Amino acid sequence: MSKSSYKYEGDPEDLVRTASVPRGSPLFANPARVRGDWYALGKSHQLKSGSVSSFFVGSKKIALWRGSDGGLIAQDPACPHTGADLSQGQVIGNSLRCSFHHWRFDGGGRCIEAPTCELPPDRRLRCYQTEERWGLMWVFLGRTFRALPDGHESLTKVILTPARSIRAHPHVVIGNGFDISHLGPVHRMELLGEVSCEQDHEHGLTLKYEAQFTQRYKRVLTGSTGKGLSVTFMSDGGSFALLTVTKPFLFQTVFTARPKTTGGTDTQLAFLLPPGRPDRWIRAMLALTFLLADDKKILDTIEFSPGWVPSDAVLRKFSRVVNSE
Predict the structure, then answer these.
(1) SS3 assignment, position 108
(2) Is residue 210 pLDDT above 60, yes or no?
(3) 57, 104, 166, 275: which sits with the fewest CB atoms below 10 Å from its CB?
């Protein structure tokens, strides 16, 4: 068997050392549903203090605003008075005023002013946890909060790629990182040694392997000649992943995947890099450029309908974790 191909002949579940995950919920790659995960909405500088805008996560609309203190607030956009769109409102200090009847809401969603009422009515907006990290604005849509994973503390240089769209569903885009059987055919990579994949928590998997480009020019440009690549790919939910490469040098890449209202994915990468080493910045970005260029052509035309075989063990486990919410 060629080293560039991966073949596993046993039970798919044996490869992944984790408790079984129920199959019941049809969330995976389902455009009609939005999983309760962290989603990147855009770059932080897009939303200035005192401004409000609307963002979509699939069919779900969110009013996102920034108060005078710079805090980022995400709330349901329908005013609880008559349903007017609060993303058309105005930020007043650290509150958001509806444009229709001038009801005003604080950052916790509480109505603090209603001009036609003696006292503000007991009405509230649903609020969502937000985070600003790596130059991006994030919102969490889950019922039970879990922290946004962090990168390695030594990687303080952040480079954001331009946002782009991919036709495939976000779960398929993130799941591509768990599809180890495509590394040889698509990326001309050979696996070196064992592959491991473990479930770290209810919503995430961690895949570890070593691999090498079979094309010499890619090995030279990425600095992996004679060393190969040591790769860890970690997911949290279905729309966030963190790629960590420790060999030939340490760098990380944050993968974001937000479902579009029209189907497909809005995605953006954040490279977490060692400071003061532009040579390594270039090599890290070249390595990902090689991989993503090959993947995008396939992900833009795929009609995902899995017919699982044993070598799909890791990707299949990822789909079950996504479905387990």
Answers:
(1) coil
(2) yes
(3) 275
Which pairing describes strands 16-17 and 157-160: parallel, antiparallel, or unpaired?
Answer: unpaired
What are the tokens at 294? 């090959």
Q: Report the C-alpha gap between 316 and 34 in whole angstroms.
A: 20
Q: Which two tokens stand for residue 62?
A: 């969110």
Contact assessment for residue 304 and residue 15, using Cβ atoms and an 8 Å cutoff: no
Position 218 scores a pLDDT of 87
Q: Which two tokens stand for residue 290?
A: 């090689």
DSSP code per residue over 18-83: S---------TT-TT---S-EEEEEEGGGS-TT-EEEEEETTEEEEEEE-TT--EEEE-SB-TTT-
Kindly report the length of the chain.
325
What beta strand segments (E) does 214-264 contain? 229-235, 240-247, 251-259
Closest CA to 45 of 37, 35, 53, 34: 53
Mean pLDDT, range 30-42, rounded to an integer: 96
Answer yes or no: are the C-beta atoms of 170 and 57 closer than 8 Å. Answer: no
Q: Where are the domains of the chain?
A: 12-33+149-323, 39-140
Q: What is the mean pLDDT of residues 56-85?
A: 97
Are 52 and 85 within 8 A, CB to CB?
Answer: no
This prediction has a pTM of 0.89
pLDDT, mean over the chain: 91
CATH of domain 12-33+149-323: 3.90.380.10
Q: What is the pLDDT of residues 56-67, one digit of tens each?
A: 999 999 999 999
* CATH placement of domain 39-140: 2.102.10.10
323/222 Cα distance (integer angstroms): 36
Residue 262 three-state SS: coil
